[in-house]
Amino acid sequence: MIILIVAFHSFSAYLASQPGSPSDFDHAPDDWTALRIVDSERWVGFDLFSAFNFLYLMQLMFFLSGLFVWSSLQRKGWRDFLLHRTFRLGIPFLLGTYLLIPLALYPVYRVTAIDQSWPAFGVHYKALPSTPTGPMWFLWVLMVLDVCAVPLLRLAPMTPRVLQSLLARADVHPSWLFGIVICVSAAAYLPLSVCYPPWKWVSFGPFAVQATFALQYVIYFLFGVIVGRCGLDSGLLDVNGALVKQWGRWAIGGFCSFLIWLMPTALIIKVPGAQVAILRLIGDLGLVGFAAAACFGFVSFSLRFGGARWPIIESISENAFAIYFFHFLFVLWAQFAFLALPLPAIIKGISVLIVSLLLSWLTSIGAWRTLMVIRPVLRYTLLIPGGPGR
After folding, report:
1. How far apart are CA 184 and CA 289, in angstroms?
2. How far apart are alpha carbons 240 and 137 in whole angstroms?
3. 76 in helix, strand or coil?
4. What are the pLDDT digits (tens) for 86-107?
5. Measuring CA to CA, which residue among 86, 79, 91, 124 is closest to residue 105?
6. Which domain holds residue 36?
């Protein structure tokens, strides 16, 4: 999943649907924050890849994050759980937002700037109407959800057990739970989609989130908490369970539901006079169905084929959080470095992915080893628990 996230950002400069030229850094911030580096080389295959992952990847991220809440609370207790989450998510959010993201966005500024000096960049950066956070937005939203989960689980200890009994049916028939997820997420998404397009962000200072997907993130996080309460190797996540055995059906269902979103969306864009309201409703339903099907399919596929041990994959998995933290810096600088090279878009995109993944991976390993050296001091001063995969 972390490789897909790095790929999603790496390919963003080479989308065929991008505008002909980049937006000025300090004008129309909604444009440049979504399309940061705009390359003249394009490939429509990256558009399909990005659209496919845009519609479900963060829902899956919140679902997977929710899986470990119950076991972590049981192991640490609520005080240590909140302390750990504050350190693990809150401090990286602040460091990423106010240190890493400005460094990452400097090449975006240079593309259109007349005065390309760092002091001039600082002036323009401070004048922005909101604080750019890049991928760091996920950290503050997840921290809020983790904090909110503590009183819910403490004040209503029987609720997970009740839901666990309901999930017993889903262990045998995952489509039953799939239908519930679709209905709940549709009720949350459809009213918001009337007011906001899927790519619209709302922000207050450094706290930004996609407006239409915000409630979906909450739903998938709670869905993960419930499934995690049932066990990480049993129930829906049983490698010999019904979900894994039906992985092929979920893959086909995800592809079909993606087409249900893609076709009406394409008609709205390409066909003048199309019935926009009807097509948009069909597309929104397709989006909700696809997000759920893709999450079910991703989990079933991973459980079915992810049991083999690969040293490289295990190392990436151990360092996934830090790769997520660092990759944006390397993606934007690599895209900027490739701007002047006369290479096809597919070569540029794959090259940016390899360079960004490798550098963020190596930086993660180096950062973790450095932290291990100073960990004895930090353990007694900040009470830091846990390891790289916790």
Report:
1. 11
2. 36
3. helix
4. 889 999 999 999 999 999 999 9
5. 124
6. 1-54+310-390
